[in-house]
From TrEMBL:
<dbReference type="Pfam" id="PF01153">
    <property type="entry name" value="Glypican"/>
</dbReference>
<comment type="similarity">
    <text>Belongs to the glypican family.</text>
</comment>
<keyword id="KW-1003">Cell membrane</keyword>
<keyword id="KW-0357">Heparan sulfate</keyword>
<dbReference type="GO" id="GO:0009986">
    <property type="term" value="C:cell surface"/>
</dbReference>
<dbReference type="GO" id="GO:0009966">
    <property type="term" value="P:regulation of signal transduction"/>
</dbReference>
<feature type="region of interest" description="Disordered">
    <location>
        <begin position="477"/>
        <end position="542"/>
    </location>
</feature>
<comment type="function">
    <text>Cell surface proteoglycan.</text>
</comment>
<dbReference type="InterPro" id="IPR001863">
    <property type="entry name" value="Glypican"/>
</dbReference>
<dbReference type="GO" id="GO:0045202">
    <property type="term" value="C:synapse"/>
</dbReference>
<protein>
    <submittedName>
        <fullName>Glypican-6-like</fullName>
    </submittedName>
</protein>
<keyword id="KW-0472">Membrane</keyword>
<dbReference type="GO" id="GO:0098552">
    <property type="term" value="C:side of membrane"/>
</dbReference>
<feature type="compositionally biased region" description="Polar residues">
    <location>
        <begin position="533"/>
        <end position="542"/>
    </location>
</feature>
<dbReference type="GO" id="GO:0016477">
    <property type="term" value="P:cell migration"/>
</dbReference>
<keyword id="KW-0654">Proteoglycan</keyword>
<keyword id="KW-0449">Lipoprotein</keyword>
Length: 565
């Protein structure tokens, strides 16, 4: 009985083996498919051979050899990397273009603002602007440098304070041409720019607007630049040996049984690719947080931190500040004289006077919106942000969905008539989750979950840091710069040692009552620029607009006299 049973077993094995051998009595289809990959057709046996030495594919009669397995493993590595690289390259290209568009737009806005201011100030203020144009040129150069390099290159707060202080020095001398001022005296004047508020509220408002919009713009552009950088570095991560082995088994083991047209089951593909891309999937959390922060900052750029709405009319805002100084010039001068001392009369001021009013009193007229220069590519910030928000939304979950994207290609079978890793049949294993931790139960790829990829981890840290910067920029804060007290602190070195220094440099009068020309005794102030500056609200000596006009006439006289000399 035992002998009969043994004979049956031997006969069954022989029949099965004979069937396999008969099935693989030629490997012509395999030879053609193998050759189409660029390999030497002579590597493929003409008919099935003993597959016992194979390391990856099922053993038994086979159209594969160990040498073929090695070459097909390399091919597998290339083929699983190709679709991922294509998706990554597309992502890089998309956001590289968006970065270039935004960067070009912001830079051109800066340049156009400088050109617009120069053109209109030449027309409005003539030689007085031309002789001081370097101040404005340096102002725009500093803004551009801050946009490019941030607070490491330019302290925006300090730069703006210096700009207004320098502008005050120049204007103060222009409206007081009858006096001689030493460098020490002018240092005293510039130290008290904020206290004097000669330009009204324009510097404070412009500082807030410029700070918020520039921080938002440059941080957003840096975020756009970071996306291709991260994608490029992640693309350098190599597939593990176990991943390559699993990919070879999925893609090419059907060749060994002569089934070159048999496609992998979709769920089988998902498990293999989730194992291969486990580390990349772990990027998703910080990637999505980063994209959310980018989206929120884009909305800020459309609204209160709109770079375009700040830069486009900046010439008008600076001109308004200059007009404020003109209107308050006499009050400001008297406060300076009281705090810094009375200067000497200039000897050249006694030369012949002109009766023509200086063009410095001309009111600035900006371009109409239709006449303003066209910005980058004829677009607007609103259009750019609408487009980029769509791209940002589409990029969500990019890394965790790579397996799904790869496994819907033509080379993958969605039904049950597919390659499951061992035969043409339904894939029975459950599809495991994404990410490194879930790969402990991956049935197709051996993944060491205790060894996360260093490159991936470093990019997670980079994304996390950038997200913090984006969130800070959303609040108008540059976290790379030292925080300050919002400029509200007292400045040191007033140039006055007396107990009444604070009152010497109080805010200049702005109401009609304060600007009225009545002295304490009821008489009209007679045009002399010398007025007692320390008074109560109803005290005497506040200069009339006629006095200002007379002083400005003196400016024209001085300029004419200097040219005659």
């Amino acid at each position: 009985m035992k002998s009969l049973l043994a004979l049956c077993v031997v006969w069954t094995v022989a029949v099965v083996s004979g069937t396999e051998e008969q099935k693989l009595n030629n490997c012509n289809e395999v030879r053609a498919a193998y050759s189409s990959k660029g390999f030497n057709v002579n590597d493929v046996p003409s008919k099935g051979v003993n597959g016992v030495p194979l390391k990856v594919c099922p053993q038994g009669y086979s159209c594969c050899t160990v040498e073929m397995e090695e070459k097909l493993s390399q091919q597998s590595h290339t083929e699983i990397k190709a679709p991922v690289s294509k998706l990554s390259t597309s992502l890089q290209s998309t956001f590289k273009q968006r970065h270039d568009h935004f960067d070009k737009f912001f830079r051109e806005l800066l340049k156009n603002a400088e050109i617009s201011l120069d053109s209109m100030f030449v027309k409005t203020y003539g030689m007085m602007y031309v002789q001081n144009s370097a101040l404005f040129k340096n102002f725009f150069q500093s803004l551009t440098q801050y946009y490019v390099s941030g607070s490491a290159a330019v302290n925006l707060d300090s730069m703006l304070s210096e700009f207004w202080a320098d502008l005050l020095e120049r204007m103060f001398q222009l409206v007081n041409v009858q006096y001689e001022f030493s460098d020490t005296y002018m240092d005293c004047v510039s130290r008290h720019t904020e206290e004097l508020q000669p330009f009204g509220d324009v510097p404070r408002k412009l500082r807030i607007q410029l700070t918020r919009s520039f921080i938002a713009a440059r941080t957003f552009v840096r975020g756009l630049a970071l996306m291709p950088e991260v994608a490029n570095k992640v693309s350098t991560v190599s597939a593990s040996p176990s991943c390559v082995r699993a990919a070879m088994k999925m893609l090419y083991c059907p060749y060994c049984s002569g089934q070159v047209a048999l496609k992998p089951c979709q769920n089988y593909c998902l498990n293999v690719m989730r194992g291969c891309l486990a580390n990349q999937a772990d990027l998703d959390t910080e990637w999505n947080n980063f994209l959310d922060a980018m989206h929120s900052l884009a909305e800020r750029l459309e609204g209160p931190f709109n770079f375009e709405s700040v830069m486009d009319p900046i010439d008008v805002k600076i001109s308004d500040a200059i007009m404020n100084m003109q209107e308050n010039s006499m009050q400001v001068s008297q406060k300076v004289f009281q705090g810094c001392g009375t200067p000497k009369i200039s000897a050249g001021f006694r030369s012949k006077r002109s009766v023509k009013e200086s063009t410095f009193t001309s009111r600035f007229r900006p371009y109409s919106p239709e006449a303003r220069p066209t910005t980058a590519a004829g677009t607007s910030l609103d259009r750019l942000t609408i487009e980029v928000k769509k791209k940002l939304k589409h990029a969500k979950k990019f890394w965790s969905t790579l397996p799904e994207t790869v496994c819907v290609s033509e080379g993958i079978a969605a039904g049950d008539e597919c390659w499951n890793g061992t035969a043409k049949s339904r894939y029975e294993s459950d599809v495991i989750g994404s990410g490194l931790a879930n790969q402990i139960s991956n049935p197709d790829v051996d993944v060491d979950i205790t060894k996360p990829d260093i490159v991936i981890r470093s990019q997670i840290a980079v994304l996390k840091e950038m997200t913090s910067r984006l969130k800070a920029a959303h609040s108008g804060v540059d976290i790379t710069a030292e925080s300050d007290d919002d400029g509200s602190g007292d400045e040191s070195g007033s140039g006055c040692d007396g107990p009444n220094c604070d009152m010497y440099f109080s805010v200049p009068p702005t109401s009609d009552k304060e600007r009225g020309g009545k002295a304490a005794g009821g008489s009209e102030v007679a045009g002399s620029p010398r007025v007692n500056p320390v008074q109560s609200n109803n005290s005497a000596g506040v200069t009339s607009r006629g006095s200002m006009a007379l002083a400005l006439c003196g400016l024209a006289l001085a300029l004419l006299a200097s040219r005659l000399r």
